């Protein structure tokens, strides 16, 4: 199959890696909204969350679609965290 094809394995893995990072970014967005919604938000906590989100977005944006090993490394690195967040959000044990 053509490497640029719709079902190219590297392309599918790339989408999975982006989705995994995106799920974690979404979690931090929710945490940020909760912190900002407090009567007295902690500025340090807000900055830490924002910095984490920036780092995750940068890592996702810099992921090379042709570097299968880097893509797999992202899935290995963030997959367990994203899975735990998903399971916790659905009432499943983490």
Commentary on this structure:
- The structure is a single chain.
- The protein is mostly helical.
- The chain has one domain (about 10-90).
- The protein is built from three helices and no strands.
- The protein has helices spanning about 10-35, 45-60, 70-90.
- Helix 1 (about 10-35) runs antiparallel to helix 2 (about 45-60) and helix 1 crosses helix 3 (about 70-90).
List strands and helices in order, with pairings.
Blueprint: H1 9-36, H2 43-61, H3 68-89
Helix pairs in contact: 1-2, 1-3
What would the principal axes of the Cα set say about the shape? Answer: elongated
Number of helical stretches of at least 4 residues: 3
Our measurement of the CA-to-CA distance between the termini, rounded to an integer number of angstroms, reads 38 Å
**In which range does the helix fraction lie?**
over 70%
What would you say about this model in short?
This protein has one domain. Helix 1 packs antiparallel against helix 2. With 94 residues, the chain is mainly α.
Provide tags for this entry.
3 helices, elongated, mainly alpha, 0% strand, 94 residues
